[in-house]
Amino acid sequence: MRPPVGRRRAARPQRVRIFVGCEGESEQGYVALLQRLADAAGLPLHLDTVVLQPGGGDPCAIVELAVRRLTQRERQSGAPYAHRAILLDADKLGQSPQRDDRAAAIAAGEAIALIWQQPCHEALLLRHLPGCAQLRPPQTRVACQQLVQRWPDYRKPMPAARLAQRIDVASLAQIRTVEGALAEFLLTIGLLTAEPG
Q: Which entry of 1, 128, 134, 196 is 20 to 30 Å from 153 by CA?
């Protein structure tokens, strides 16, 4: 049935397409949580999440694969992404300095923000929890132990709905001072606002 003449449906704003590459399913769940928070805030964003799992988590291989995937998706859609980012575990950094430099150069050339999780995704999640912003576990194993200690129900990978039980907009604001690259990305896409002052 057609709407009566003279009545128009409210135009929905075009969603801003954002490419977010993820090392694995855990990061994919986190980005899905960010999408839920953006939707709840009425932000017209589409976080296009792509899981990138080359062998061994080599940062350079992940960045190279991300470039191939985002180029392919832009070609398919006929439109470029407004912003591009990749979530990467930092525990592999330094194993091959030349490849680390190459990854950084490729990312810079493609305008991709590299969001390093120090040392891993579980440590990033840990810093979202109340009173945990300053925790810096030195290794992935320790990060996982500390996260489960404070979040006994945590299981990897955690879907967005379960993450939302503990992580909200206030949690994002908490990580603003301790996760520089992530905070910058969230500011760029509008999920964080600039602090007054």
A: 134
Residues whose CB falls within 8 Å of the CB of residue 36, separated by 6 or more in sequence, listed in order? 160, 164
pLDDT in tens, 72-96: 999 999 999 999 999 999 998 999 9
Q: 7-40: per-residue pLDDT in tens?
A: 666 666 789 999 999 999 999 999 999 999 999 9
Q: Cα 115 to chain center, whole Å?
A: 8
Extract the tokens encoding 65: 């694969």
Q: Which two tokens stand for residue 175?
A: 């990580």
* Amino acid letter for position 111: A
Which residues, 6+ apart, have CB-to-CB distance to 109 below 8 Å? none
What's the 3-state SS for the chain? CCCCCCCCCCCCCCCEEEEEEECCHHHHHHHHHHHHHHHHCCCCEEEEEEECCCHHHCHHHHHHHHHHHHHHHHHHHCCCCCEEEEEEEHHHCCCCHHHHHHHHHHHHHCCCEEEEECCCHHHHHHCCCCCCCCCCCCCHHHHHHHHHHHCCCCCCCCCHHHHCCCCCHHHHHHHHHCCHHHHHHHHHHCCCCCCCC
Task: Work out the percent of the chain whose per-residue pLDDT is above 90.
Answer: 83
pTM of the complete model:
0.90
